[in-house]
Design brief:
The protein is 60% helix and 12% strand. By secondary structure, it is α/β, with parallel strands linked by helices. A hairpin with a 2-residue loop joins β4 (82-89) and β5.
Length: 655
């Protein structure tokens, strides 16, 4: 009996030509069971998986051309960088040659039929049509989904058990273990529900906006009814407006006058500052003259300039230069009298000989007395000027306070004028006319609301019926999931009990993925008496191990049920495991390889024990090993490590 399941592709051969990511062209023919691809980081292992996806579905893969261009460097102008794939779909064989850096199929062979790009303008349509026909999958996007989310797991792969609360897993099961066409019908129903939901919601929102607008207009209409009572008060409003304008103008005049006063007083302050500056200069000049005369008078007694300065500071400022304090006036006078009148030392009261043969003391004393008199006059002049300035500053400050009050009044008057003008403008139209206008608008909107209600009800009925059909289809899916639970668990437990945890199994739960209108049933792991609903319920190594086991178990179940052996590629993340877990992981891969479908395992040199265990899975055959060291472009640092890499390869003891 012919299988009702979709037919997944089985990759047979890979060939890459003229792609500058690699040092030379390379190819590989897949074998049933495990095929081991080994290389160090940066040699193109992950890019190989992207090349296979792109080779099969082209731009539908959504892998940008820039990805391959940036990875590969400059291409030769004479030769196209090309990915060539041979794969089977059931009894049919496909061979496709696709330009890596362009959206171009150069050559296509399906069974015995050949198509060259130079002969066929629609070669892409031919390929897509035959691929959908022979796989039984109605959309290329679904084929892309299977490749990216299931058949090819890159190092940073998706977690099918938990992704999007079961959304991806549910879609995968709809495609994989249902009759061909189930997924397309499910998607059509889901789209109908979503489209009708969007339409009903959209029209309901518009109806709600119209209803809201009606309420706003009714409120405005009510306000207009109240204005009927105010319409006769127009003359009072105009009178109030004139009063406010007059007060406004008055405040403007006060503001201008006040500013003139401030300007005048500010000028007087500047004038006082100028006089104070002149008198201060004279004061300093007389101070300097007195200091010079005292210095000449006493320089035969005191040769130290600091002493002369201390006498001057004490006499004229009443401050002691040594402690910077102000002695009592009697003390200052006594010291000065001793020096200048009694010619005595202020400390020991010994007589001072002030007669100097080169100095006319009489002249110096006269000049000193004259300078002191001028200094006194300057001090008398400067004091009233300072008092006058202080008074002027107080007056200016008071005027600024008054200015701010005036400005506040001006602003308040401006707002009053605005409000009164608004009130008058609303009275410019007869309230009766305005009410009639609102009635017309309200009536029109009410008609629109009734029209939308008539449209919404039938669409809501359609939405309810579409949702019932989708729920019925989802119930079919849930029945399939439940019916396969024992079979899938038998396979899953076979691996988990040996290599993970003895009590680990799968159980089903219902969750609602993003943007889904209904709950979907999906599988999640359970161990140590706990259901692991989310990724965070497991450690990093646990969730990676469980992801591998779930993926290979689901694929093995598909192989058994559909009698079809597709390919699978897994890029390992063995760095997250310790030594014992790494060996268990390798053993589980080896056992999975025994089921006979083409299985590519991509890994690096980080765990030699892991590689040695995997070599058992390829029967220690070099024909099942693809070594990226032979064609990858090594960096200078990597070249230094080549002997170590080769040592690891020799330890595999491949035939």
């Amino acid at each position: 009996m012919k299988s009702t399941y979709i037919m997944l592709p089985a990759l047979k051969s890979i060939q890459v030509e003229n792609y500058h990511l690699f040092s030379k062209n390379w190819s590989y023919n897949l074998h049933a069971g495990m095929n081991l691809f080994v290389g160090t980081n940066g040699l193109g292992k992950t890019t190989t998986t992207s090349l296979i996806i792109y080779g099969m579905v082209g731009p539908n893969s959504e892998i940008p051309m820039e990805y391959f261009e940036n990875r590969g460097g400059e291409s030769s102008p004479k030769f196209y960088p090309t990915i060539k794939l041979i794969f089977s779909v059931g009894d049919h064989e496909f061979e496709i040659h696709r330009v890596i850096t362009e959206d171009t199929i150069l050559y296509l062979r399906v069974d015995e039929h050949e198509y060259h790009s130079k002969d066929f303008d629609n070669i892409d349509d031919i390929y897509d049509g035959l691929l959908k026909q022979y796989t039984g999958i109605e959309s290329i996007s679904d084929i892309t989904f299977l490749l990216q989310k299931f058949l090819i797991r890159q190092e940073e792969g998706n977690y099918l058990i938990w992704d999007d609360k079961g959304g991806d897993q549910s879609k995968l099961i709809r495609i994989l273990i249902n009759e061909a066409g189930f997924q397309a019908e499910y998607e059509r129903l889901a789209k109908d529900v979503k489209d009708l939901d969007t339409s009903v919601r959209g029209k309901t929102d518009v109806k709600a906006q119209f209803t809201k607008k009606i309420k706003e207009l009714e409120l405005l209409r009510s306000t207009e009814l109240e204005k009927r009572q105010d319409y006769n008060q127009r003359s009072e409003l105009e009178k109030s407006l004139l009063g406010v304008k007059a007060e406004y103008e008055k405040n403007l005049e006060l503001q201008e006058k006040n500013l003139e006063n401030i300007k005048y007083l500010t000028g007087l302050i500047k004038e006082s500052d100028g006089k104070i500056e002149v008198v201060s200069a004279e004061y300093e000049l007389h101070t300097d003259q007195i200091r010079d005369l005292e210095s000449r008078l006493f320089k035969h007694v005191y040769s130290d300039e600091s002493v002369l300065t201390s006498i001057h500071k004490l006499k004229h400022y009443g401050i002691c230069i040594y402690c910077n304090k102000t002695p009592k006036v009697e003390v200052v006078k006594e010291i000065i009298n001793k020096l200048e009148i009694r010619n005595q030392c202020p400390v020991c009261e010994s007589g001072l000989d002030l007669v100097h043969p080169d100095l006319d003391n009489t002249q110096v004393l006269e000049e000193l007395e004259a300078s002191q008199k001028k200094l006194g006059q300057a001090k008398e002049e400067i004091e009233p000027l300072k008092v006058q300035k202080v008074e002027l500053v107080k007056q200016v400050d008071a005027l600024w306070i008054e200015q701010r009050i005036i400005e506040k009044e001006i602003n308040a008057n401006a707002i009053k004028q605005y409000d009164l003008n608004i009130q008058l403008s609303t009275l410019n139209k007869n309230p009766e006319e305005q009410i009639t206008e609102y009635d017309t608008q309200i009536s029109g909107l009410q008609t629109q609301v009734l029209n939308y209600e008539k449209e919404i009800e039938p669409e809501r009925d359609k939405w309810e019926r579409a949702k019932e059909r989708l729920n019925a289809k989802n119930d079919e899916l849930n029945e399939v999931i439940s019916s396969f639970e024992d079979k899938l668990n038998a396979i899953f437990v076979k691996y988990a009990s040996k290599y993970f945890k003895p009590d680990c199994k799968l159980t089903t739960i219902e969750r609602r993925p993003k943007e889904s209108k209904i709950n979907v049933k999906s599988y999640v792991p359970e161990f140590e008496e706990k259901t692991r609903f989310e990724i965070k319920n497991c450690s990093t190594s646990e969730r990676i191990f469980l992801e591998y086991l779930f993926r290979i178990s689901l694929l093995e179940l598909y192989q058994i049920e559909s009698k079809n052996s597709p390919f699978i590629i897994m890029e390992t993340t063995e760095g997250a495991f310790d030594i014992s877990n790494t060996i268990e992981l390798a053993s589980s891969f080896n056992e999975f390889g025994d089921i006979g479908l083409p299985f590519i395992l991509i890994t690096n040199f980080s765990k030699p024990d892991f590689l040695q265990k995997l070599s058992e899975g390829i029967g220690k055959s070099k024909h099942r090993l693809l070594n990226y060291l032979e064609f990858g472009k090594l960096s200078d640092i990597q070249k230094k490590s080549v002997p170590e890499f080769r040592k690891v390869l020799r330890s595999l003891k491949l035939v």
